[in-house]
Amino acid sequence: MNTPVIGVLALQGDVREHLIALAAADAVARPVRRPEELAEIDGLVIPGGESTTISKLAVLFGVMEPLRTRVRDGLPVYGTCAGMIMLADKILDPRSGQETIGGIDMIVRRNAFGRQNESFEAAVDVQGVEGGPVEGVFIRAPWVESVGAEAEVLAEHGGHIVAVRQGNALATSFHPELTGDHRVHGLFVDMVRANRTATSL
To answer: What percent of the chain has pLDDT over 90?
Structure first.
């Protein structure tokens, strides 16, 4: 049985919710904090939280460079909210010293949908996810200002790009792990399975 092992970067943010969602989508889910743990996974989720904090902790724990290398080499990766910012090749308004992993040719604007008290939920049609719109939870969410030729826009809300895929990298500005609807995680698990099959041939 092709059950992928998917890690959740457990430095900061809603790690537990992603572990639950991945398990519900038929993956073996485990937290990842150290470089050696990256070698034991077939895919990785970068959760929401505070992108500047995640960036600094990734450097502190020694996982930033190994992550960049594995993503560049094709590790399937999915980022939500702050995780989307971490997967952007460029941030429009970075904090001082803020770094990203990269992997998606996009420019992201931090906190674009407003502050914490302006958080909201909205139905979002996501290309590749069957069964109607998903409920998107937007909490201090970014949006994508622009994408390069290699990136595919999967969803928009209010005229702004909120879901993108490029190869084995997937990113949403909203939090599907907070809704109990695991279809976006299912899409990612399918991406990881396909990559496992392709690399084992």
So the answer is: 85
Catalytic residue among 17, 18, 157, 177: 177
The model scores a pTM over 0.90: yes
Is 81 tagged catalytic?
yes
Tens-place pLDDT, residues 70-97: 999 999 999 999 999 999 999 987 777 7
Q: Which of 18, 157, 175, 182 is catalytic?
A: 175
One of 81, 157, 182, 185 is an active-site residue; which one?
81
Give yes or no for residue 2 having a pLDDT over 80: no
SS (H, E, C) the chain: CCCCEEEEECCCCCHHHHHHHHHHCCCEEEEECCHHHHCCCCEEEECCCCHHHHHHHHHHCCCHHHHHHHHHCCCCEEEECHHHHHHEEEECCCCCCCCCCCCEEEEEECCCCCCHHHCEEEEECCCCCCCCCEEEEECCCCEEEEECCCCEEEEEECCEEEEEEECCEEEECCCHHHCCCCHHHHHHHHHHHHHHHHHHC
Residue 117 pLDDT > 90? no
